[in-house]
Here is the input.
Amino acid sequence: MAKLENELPAHLTYHTASHTEDVLKAVDILAASEGITGNALTLLRTAALFHDAGFLQQSEDHEEISCILARDHLPDYEYSPAQIEHICKIIIATRLPQSPTDIFSQLLCDADLYYLGTGEYTDKAAKLFNELTVTGPFYTESEWQIKQIEFLSTHKYFTRSAANMLEANKQKKLEELSLHLEKTLAPHTEDSAASILQDSLLTIIGVTIAAVALKLFLVPNHFFDGGITGISLLVHEVYDFNLGLVIVVLNLPLILISYFSIGKRFAFRTLISVILLGICLLLIPNEPVTADKLLISVFGGAFLGIGIGLIMRTGAALDGIEVLAVYTLRKTSFTITEIILGINIIIFTIAGFRFGIETALYSILTYFTATRCIDYVVEGLQAYTGVTIVSGKSEEIKYQLVNKLGRGITVYKGERGFLPGKFEVSSECDIIFTVITRLELRKLKNLVYDVDPKAFVFANTIKEASGGIIKRRHSH
Here is the structure.
């Protein structure tokens, strides 16, 4: 027991020495009820003592490691080979799903999960959840609730004593968890009206900002943007058609395509947004805010990007260029990025020939500014960042990331070394991967470099992430 207390890894919050003590106590209670005494009880208690000893070395397949340790140590205490193999058989039976074959393994299985039917369930489950954030598999809080319900629903106590003592309380806990899960999930439907209102407000604000960018910055100064908006501006400038009407007309076919290729919800929201933009363009007069071309490019692009970004956060769009690119992708071998780039090159080339190179160059700056603003509005400052860490002190770093930063991690097995002049020198290591937000990157690096100043850390932007233990970005 002293070895468990002193040498079990710190990240084990459930499979601790205290857990083994609890199992030993449960064994005594159940064995007494079942009439197990003498040498039989000694074997059972020994199996309980060793059943989680494998965690001293690893979490995965720890039962086999426990048996190896039992075979190594028990001969010193005059256990016979037959007794040791019986003990190992009892230990192996505790592996989930439990598979006891005799009364002894049934008793240890029931003792191992004794807490399911006691008042300690909530505390024990929380400790197990915290431990799994390090060892895996990883669950979100709602997933963990569902997992508990599934486990309790299928679990059964094998001995009559355990069933009589614990089953009623276990069922009560199952009912509590099920009720709590229902309450947790219920607000999603109740909040739908609030979500619709929020999306509607964002749509109105986004459309208004985009219209202001067009009518007060770009249109009066003959500047252009990319995409369908850019094409609409060209048509407006060349043929003097009403800009609002042109934007609506050019987007309508693409909205129709999106109805079948993306979904009716996206198509409907985009249609509403485009129509609102057309109305705003009719109502807002052409009154330039400034004649400074640099200010027009930067702030016109910024306002346009913010407006489009807000619309995108509601699950809609103000520009059907992506839909057109996806449709064209099916007819050609070009990528979506190449198609959009090609369309924009045509727009800016025409603008250059028609209105001068200077106008085209400022329009490109406008487009670039708008694109960057869209990225920040859609992704936010908390854009997800994937971080990979290679270090010889991976265990300490894993502990810091999970317990100090509060993030889930994924661990790959790899090798480090292979340096110039020392190519033959290498060592196995854990390669750690985690997903954080952009604002957490500095904190993560500080934690890592405090442990290992020579750690190799690199990060890359992740467009989307869900599930697991990640910091939730605000959707609005």
